[in-house]
Amino acid sequence: MVSENDLPVAIIGGGPVGLAAAAQLVSRGLPVKVYEAGSAVGSNLRDWGHVRVFTPWRYCVDAVARKLLESHGWQMPEPEAFPTADEIVDQYLAPLAKLAELAPSIETNARVVAISRWGADKVLSKGRQTRPFMLVVETAEGTRRDSARAVIDASGTWQTPNPLGAGGLSAEGEREFGDRMAYGIPNVLGRDRHLYAGRTTLVVGAGHSAANALLELAELAQTEPGTSALWVTRSTDLVRIYGGGDADALPARGEL
Predict the structure, then answer these.
(1) What is the rounded radius of gyration, in angstroms, for the C-alpha atoms of the chain?
(2) Which of 74, 110, 216, 222 could form a disulfide with 69 if both were Cys (CB 3.0 to 4.6 A apart)?
(3) Between these two residues, 213 and 250, which has the higher pLDDT value?
(4) Is the pLDDT of residue 97 over 90?
(5) CA separation for the pair 241, 35 (Å, rounded)
């Protein structure tokens, strides 16, 4: 019988937060298991790899992860430079995941689809907290159940975007026409250019993803006749959307 103290801390997601958590735990001598649903670490970031983030490198790299990387000869990028999502993966996450301290603990193409406690059904509460966690993991080889002493969910929300409708429900027709909708930040000026050039695009949302999409559509319209955008928000107060401008704590965010 394996002692719970010998079980790993399960981390769901191999992105910046998940790998930072893994580095922190490894530095404390704790066993770790990272589950990444994609084919490589940082797979969600690859979806918007063309986007330059508004936080400089010094905010993107975990202190413990940096120390671990530098012990293997890694050099920190210019701290005040603003990386793209692709650069974060290529220059930080991928090298971190290859380190001998972390690589054996990372499994890709492994999706955690359920979490429970071993031997505890939904109506059992007595002593539930003393039982190890049970993770249902889907892989190409099939479904299995793993044990863990604790679970950190660092999967993020990229694969579970907000629906267009009010009240957390899909808008009428959203599911039927889902294949014609892009959730997130499409590469309007790059690989997705042909989808938007010469067409009218509806941009829904008041966040930074919407701001990036609108700016790229406006730039595309300068060279592609017939390109236009409609912007829909739930709020009638656009001050919050525009952010802090010159007074923003993050200048690059204020520029949006």
Answers:
(1) 21
(2) 74
(3) 213
(4) yes
(5) 35
Neighbours of 228 (CB within 10 A): 13
Burial of 2 from C-beta contacts in 10 A (0-12 / 13-18 / 19+):
exposed
Give domain status of residue 160, yes or no.
no
Number of domains in the chain: 2
- Residue 109: inside a domain: yes
Token representation of residue 51: 């986007």
The helix or strand, by DSSP H or E, that contains position 80, with its residue range, turns out to be: none
Range of the domain at 243: 166-255
In a domain, 249, yes or no: yes
Residue 132 within a domain: yes
Core vs surface per residue 70-83: b (16+ CB within 10 A) or e: eeeebeebeeeebb
Please check whether residues 119 and 20 belong to one and the same domain: yes
What pLDDT digit, counting tens, does each position of 160-218 carry? 888 888 888 899 999 999 888 998 889 999 999 999 999 999 999 888 888 889 999 99
pLDDT digit string, tens, across residues 124-169: 677 778 889 999 999 999 999 999 999 999 999 888 888 888 888 8
Please indicate, yes or no, whether residues 149 and 211 belong to a single structural domain of this protein.
no
